[in-house]
Amino acid sequence: MTWTLILSLAAAAYFLKLLGSVIIGHWVMPPVLERCLLLIPAALLAGLIAKDTFTVGQELGVDARAAGLAVAVIATWRKLPFVVIIIAGVGTTALIRLFV
Amino acid sequence: MHHFRAPHARRFISASLMIGIAFIIFGLSFGVLAVSAGASVLQSCAMSLLIFTGASQMSAVSVIATGGSPASAFGGAVLLAGRNAVYGLAMAPVLRGGSLPSRLLGAQWVIDETTAVVSAETDPATRRTAFWISGAILYACWNLGTLLGALLGSSINPSDFGLDVAFPVMFTAMVASHLRTKQGRRAAIFGAIAAVALAPFMPIGLPILVSAFGMLFGLAPQSQENETAS
Mind telling me which InterPro entries this protein's record contains (chain A) (predicted)? Predict the structure, then answer.
């Protein structure tokens, strides 16, 4: 982790917040642009989930992390509290590593 | 002093505190993982204080942790932060009328959760109070969690506790609300497939930038049917 990354990310993130809330506050964003921007989390978070669960570096694989993710998906689907989702997902992976 | 009705104040304060508890847990996990990805305690805390948008911070640490370049970490995190410009437009009327310093400070607190708390209120004065109170509570909780996690992370090995799966688990909790529409689900499926299918063929960190192209499902107008589909 470098300070360059941290500070440039801080500047960019703050600029985006400032852009909407202060700089162009009166502007009506075209609906198509708004739809696309609001779809980024769905696309990117799903990508990050897949990367962090099914890859090690550039290699693909299925290990104890997949079981933790499966439990977390079920907990999220059942609308359980965030704390429960995290403990259930992380705990499942830890237990499998311990006993398998 | 703004005047607002007490039941409304109770509602946005309790909503903020509920989210605040989640922020402490998320922040704690973020702190642990940031340190294990090579950040110092100071760097981890600086990220939460200065960047203050959880998904972007986690995305950047996740890419660095798996060996991606700072440039790809930056790219994914900034793409994720783009939605704050949309939330900012929604929050602009709430900040308008305040002094310039207060608007510059308030902008830092424009995130999904403060927007959600404010959007539940209708009265302009109540919305303003709800923004500042939810912002202060969530900023405090996120940074407290990060500090505790970073200190804890310095003394444990995350994978011993299954914490290496904490990122995908937290991303799962975060993505759920984005899957209510058909477009959201299509974007997510595209993103997940791109990230896995391209991993063997591209430098680490780049496939998730390709995932972001899932946003192009938004080019088509969203029908009423899509919005009500569960």
Answer: Brnchd-chn_aa_trnsp_AzlD
Domain count, chain B: 2
Between B124 and B143, whose confidence is greater? Answer: B143
Beta strands A59-60 and A55-56 are antiparallel
Task: Name the average pLDDT for chain B.
Answer: 90
Contacts of B85 in chain A (CB under 8 A): 16-17, 19-20, 37
Distance between CA atoms of residues B208 and B73, nearest Å? 10
> Which residues of A fall within a CB distance of 8 Å from B176?
76-77
Question: Is residue A30 less than 8 Å (CB to CB) from chain B?
Answer: no
The residue among A67, A52, A32 whose CA lies nearest residue B192 is A52
CA distances to A3, A32, B76 from B40, in Å: 10, 41, 22
The DSSP bridge partners found for residue A60 are A55
For Cα atoms B168, B170, B174, give the angle at the middle one, nearest 5 degrees: 110
Cα–Cα distances in angstroms (integers) from residue A74 to residues A68, A77, A83, A87, B181, in the given order: 10, 5, 14, 13, 19
Question: Is the same domain home to B16 and B113?
Answer: yes
Does residue B1 belong to any structural domain of this protein?
A: no
Of B160, B179, B198, the residue at which a domain comes to its end is B179
Q: Note down the domain range covering B124.
A: 6-179
Contact between A13 and B84 using a beta-carbon 8 Å cutoff? yes
B192 and B167 co-located in one domain: no
* Structural domain ending residue among the three candidates B141, B158, B179: B179
Same domain, B115 and B78: yes
| Chain A interface disruption, residue of B26, B171, B181, most A CBs within 10 A | B171
pTM listed for this prediction: 0.88
pLDDT in tens, A73-91: 999 999 998 889 999 999 9
